[in-house]
Every structure is written in C-alpha cells, then in structure tokens.
C-alpha cells in the first residue's frame, strides 16, 4: 500500500509516495538520530556546567570526586559529556560546589545559539551520503588544525 506523504516546509511542501513500511523505517531512523543528538547535547551541556561549577569552587577533579564518593575518571567522563550523572550525583556536586541545581538546567543565550547551530548541522548532515560526511569531517579537522592561522589572517 502506498501513501502520499506531505512534509510542510516554510514556503512549500515536499510530497512523495512511499509505502507505510518505508516511511515508518525512515521516520524511526530519523527519530533515533535526533534522540542520540539530543542526549549528546544534554551530556555536553551538563558536563560543561559541572566543570564550570568545579572550577569556580576551586576544586580539582580528584577533590570533587573524593567529596561525592566517585572516581576522578567518573568526574572526567561527566565533564567531557561521555556520561550523564544521576540526579543524586548532580545534587551532590551542586552541594559541594555551592551552586543551585537549577544552574545545571538553565539555558543561556550562548547555549541556545550552540544548540541551534548543532541542530542545523545535524539536519544538513542527515541528508548527506558517507563520502560527503567524510569530506565535511576532513574540512572541520583541517580547520581545527589550522584555526590559529585562519584567525590571525582575519
């Protein structure tokens, strides 16, 4: 069975015919990618705030880890966005660093800008094939390796 699918965009809509199974597979795959991106973004945001709170309190990763009965590696993984702390761990970090837990969930204008840009990049990259993605990754790596030269020439 084929269905006529309309996706509204700002000024027009895209129409295409797909089977229900094909559309369900496409929608599910897109949702999984979006959820992974959202999780990674949350991990990064919380990790950055944990690092800022720790540094503002004048603590090392080892000192913070000892204060909340966690390992230095656990704190490092949280700060780098690899792991998301539990609410209990987050509350203990806030207690030790002397900040309110709401700080961990506030969104500054800079955070929104970063999130908007990452979302746009995610949407654009989701439409690329593997060779195009490799090209983009290579360009980003090239930029990062020569960032100081690019900024100095501006």
Automatic annotation (TrEMBL):
Domain HTH cro/C1-type residues, every copy: 50-104
Classification via Pfam families: HTH_3
Entry GO terms, CC: cytosol
Superkingdom, taxonomy of origin: Bacteria
Gene3D superfamilies: lambda repressor-like DNA-binding domains
SMART domains attached to this UniProt entry: HTH_XRE
Entry GO MF terms: DNA binding; DNA-binding transcription factor activity
Alphabetized UniProt keyword annotations: DNA-binding
CDD domains named in the record: HTH_XRE (cd00093)
Protein's UniProt name: XRE family transcriptional regulator
Gene source species: Methylobacterium currus
């Amino acid at each position: 069975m084929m269905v006529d699918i309309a996706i509204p965009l700002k000024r027009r809509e895209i129409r295409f015919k797909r089977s229900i199974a094909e559309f369900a597979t496409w929608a599910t795959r897109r949702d999984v990618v979006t959820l992974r991106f959202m999780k990674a973004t949350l991990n990064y945001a919380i990790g950055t705030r944990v690092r800022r709170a720790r540094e503002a309190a004048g603590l090392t990763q080892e000192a913070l880890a000892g204060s909340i009965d966690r390992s230095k590696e656990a704190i490092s993984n949280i700060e780098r966005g690899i792991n998301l702390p539990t609410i209990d761990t987050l509350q203990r970090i806030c207690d030790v660093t002397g900040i309110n837990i709401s700080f961990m969930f506030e969104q500054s204008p800079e955070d929104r800008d970063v999130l908007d840009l990452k979302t746009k990049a995610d949407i654009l990259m989701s439409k690329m094939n593997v060779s195009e993605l490799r090209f983009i990754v290579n360009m980003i790596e090239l930029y990062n390796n020569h960032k100081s030269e690019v900024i100095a020439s501006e």
